Amino acid sequence: MSLRMVATDFAIDLGTSNILVYKKNEGVIINEPSMIVLDENNTKVLAIGNEAKEMIGKTPSNIHVVKPIVNGVITDFNLTEALLSHFYNEVNPGMAFLQPKVVICVPSGITDIESRAIIDAALHAGSRDIILVDESLAAAFGMGLTPEDPKGLLLINLGAGTTEVAVISLNGIVTSKTLNKGGDYIDEAIIDLIRENKKLDIGKNTAENIKVDLLSLKVKDAEKAIDVDGRDLLTAAPKTVNVSSKDLVDCILPFADDVVSMIYEVLEKVPPELTADIKRDGFALTGAFSKASGLREYIENKLGLSSFMSEDPATDAILGAGKILEDPDMFYKYRK
């Protein structure tokens, strides 16, 4: 076992779907599903991350695939600690006399109790100092925006477990609203729709692939289609059906309207001076689900605003957390 004097500091984004890790001076080194496979007694960890995701829907009844983080919130302290310990060891294998400083992204709507749970899990996993940073604020830094400026920045964060609309100014959240729906909710909606309309039972990984390949609000994509394999609900035999993009509109359109309604609710609480900034600059879109085809354009048309999105919105928050790790004074600029 290797031994070092000082462990390398890093940042981590505890996402409902994926955990991303940024290592100081190296960048993003880990992007794996936030999943764990447990034995029948729920006492032994059998697999974590990519290996665990591959087992979804394929394990015997005595092996369980679980997600210790739901909607950005820890649901099981011990499993989250095990998850963190695994990725901590990936960054700093062996032992160190001085444990690492860690920046952790958290949802803006997180409670004090939930914050304490994350801090405790991180401390038990092996941290000496922990900086919790709002995920939307971290994403703004990661997109190359300037949330520390005295101007209003409207940011829409479309994640796997939650959707968050926030107005940021001077490194703080002026007002925000969170919806416990995101990419995972759409996966479940696709499963239900195909069961209802196609009489086919499919798994979560298949639903996620359908979402990536077909889900769209663009009219030109309506006839795009793929063959989907699953289990016939009537005969229980293997079956293949054809699913088109237009079949899935009912999965995403209500969600898109919910997001627009959230934005209007947030804007109603914004001071007029910041509203003028938003009118001029538009909104920023981040989070993995923001890549859904046509969703950005739909929101733009409903709001009458322009928008900005990075090349890889799924990594905005972790890149921003990395910037805060490299330069904490930037984050603490307007904090006591």
Write out key terms for the chains shown.
336 residues; alpha/beta; 5-stranded mixed β-sheet; 11 helices
What can you tell me about this protein's structure?
By secondary structure, this protein is α/β, with parallel strands linked by helices. The chain is 37% helix and 29% strand. It is built from 11 helices and 20 strands. The strands form 6 sheets. It has a 5-stranded mixed sheet with strand order 4-3-2-11-12, with helices on both faces. A 5-stranded mixed sheet has the order 15-14-13-19-20, with helices on both faces. Helix 4 crosses helix 10. The longest helix has 19 residues. The protein starts with a strand and ends with a helix. The mean pLDDT is 89.
Q: Please, what is the oligomeric state?
A: single chain
Radius of gyration: 21 Å
Q: In DSSP terms, counting alpha (H) and pi (I) runs of 4 or more, how many helices?
A: 11
> Helix- and strand-based class?
alpha/beta
Helix content: 25-40%
Strand residue content: 25-35%
Task: Output the strand order for the largest sheet.
Answer: 4-3-2-11-12
- The rounded distance between the terminal residues' Cα atoms is 41 Å
Anisotropy-based shape? flat
Major sheet details: 5 strands, mixed
Low-confidence stretches are: none
| DSSP, total strands | 20
Please, what is the average pLDDT? 89
